[in-house]
């Protein structure tokens, strides 16, 4: 074994202790782990990278989170922003490539769709309708012609509105609206359950966005594969695209192909 290989090899005792600590804490920083285990920050970073590669935990910017934390639903936005951050950026960049100048898009709540909004700076003349209260400020001003926010109750946990996907004219009549592309972040994707989320009202709102779209792109990182949450948003076939950071397993991949959903990953676009 070379010196580099020795350096990268985790002693079994420390590996188990570090994994157990992250599992118990839920979310940790590199500096806190270095202090607790009496090793350098660079050593902790290497340890976390290896544990992440082994599927024991998930690396975040400046630290790591446990797998159990990833599978918890309904975390606050500020917590979710640091989870799967690099994966979300990759997904957002791929999703932005589907947006056409001069088009109308709908964007739902969530941190992946928020990352998408920030990456639309190369676009022009967009009309954006959303229930994500963070999106209007995140959108580059040069990219948008009009921004509309759906009304309703505000979920403080997710900073998104819950209500009808509609707007009313001054006289009170409901206006018929549609979009060219709906970009929908979901909580889970499975071959049998389709796209699901943890909140019933959000699921209903996402369903309605999908029904009003000419094309639908589902955004979900690979940690959400082969899981089912409380409320179904739709079957797999309701989407034209599934945009993700890594290829799913064979069962989900086959189900997506059978449903004629185009799978878009960083590897597929090379």
TrEMBL record:
Name the Pfam families for this protein. Answer: DeoRC, HTH_DeoR
| Molecular function as annotated in GO | DNA binding
Residue intervals of the HTH deoR-type domain: 11-66
**InterPro entries in the record:** Carb_Metab_HTH_regulators, DeoR-like_C, DeoR_HTH, NagB/RpiA_transferase-like, Tscrpt_reg_HTH_DeoR_CS, WH-like_DNA-bd_sf, WH_DNA-bd_sf
Keywords, ordered alphabetically: DNA-binding, Transcription, Transcription regulation
Q: Which PANTHER family match?
A: AGA OPERON TRANSCRIPTIONAL REPRESSOR-RELATED (PTHR30363:SF44), HTH-TYPE TRANSCRIPTIONAL REGULATOR SRLR-RELATED (PTHR30363)
Under which name does UniProt file this protein? Answer: DeoR/GlpR family DNA-binding transcription regulator
Organism (species): Paractinoplanes aksuensis
Q: Lineage of this protein's species?
A: Bacteria, Bacillati, Actinomycetota, Actinomycetes, Micromonosporales
